[in-house]
Design a protein that fits this description.
This protein has about 210 residues and is α/β, with parallel strands linked by helices. The protein contains ten helices and five strands; from the N terminus they run βαβαβαβαβαααααα. α4 (about 90-100) packs across α10 (about 200-210).
Length: about 210
């Protein structure tokens, strides 16, 4: 059977880092690098008609920020998966990036060892994050549940599943951890999306947790 090749583009203004990302991607037969854009504006122009399956997005770009670029890109191409690649690990930027529609958050120091693993996780439905980022998200969640009038009428089971989503767990991992069926997990997540009025797992997690 013919191997599926996934298309990816890079939005990064640092030529040296862009070269590293390009080299890692091009070393894999599973990925095809379409374009490397040095700015958000050029990326949005280049992807106006069609976007790749995955985009690697820097946050600090000349002109429009990567976070704003994610929002505009996801509005035009909601099916495109965006992995933030950045040096920033503060809570505000993490939640802003996820709220804009990013599906994962990888620190630049973790790129050599973690990039290809993160891309595979992204395609499998996960939300890959550097361990330091995942820890911040979990710690934020563990500050306590939302106020009573902000719990969106979620059931205890739905809140358990949201906690698993915040950790980046796959549906099958959630099913295993909670001792329930895969389709049951999907049903709960559909209900969560409806109650929170969102369409993606990252939107659900960010809306429920929210910067406090």
């Amino acid at each position: 059977m013919k191997r599926k090749v996934h298309e990816i583009s890079i939005v990064e203004d640092d030529p040296s880092l862009g070269a590293i990302l390009s080299e890692i991607i091009q070393s894999s037969p599973d990925w095809k690098l379409l374009e490397h854009y040095p700015s958000a504006e050029l990326a949005l122009e280049g992807m106006a008609a069609a976007a790749p399956e995955v985009v690697l997005m820097d946050i600090q770009l000349p002109g429009m920020s990567g976070i704003d670029c994610v929002g505009k890109l996801k509005a035009a191409h909601p099916e495109t998966l965006v992995l933030m690649v950045t040096v920033y690990d503060n809570n505000e930027r993490i939640f802003d990036a996820l709220a804009a529609g990013a599906s994962g958050y990888l620190l630049k120091r973790d790129i050599p060892a973690k990039l290809m693993e993160a891309l595979d996780d992204l395609l499998a439905g996960g939300s890959p994050m550097s361990s330091a980022i995942a820890r911040k998200v979990v710690q934020h969640f563990q500050k306590g549940p939302p106020a009573k009038n902000e719990d969106h009428n979620l059931t205890p089971r739905e809140k358990q599943i949201l906690e698993q989503l915040a950790k980046g767990s796959l549906y099958k991992e959630i099913a295993w951890d909670l001792g329930i069926g895969f389709e049951t997990v999907r049903s709960h997540i559909d209900n969560i999306y409806k109650k929170l009025h969102v369409r993606t797992r990252t939107e659900a997690v960010v809306k429920f947790l929210g910067p406090q």
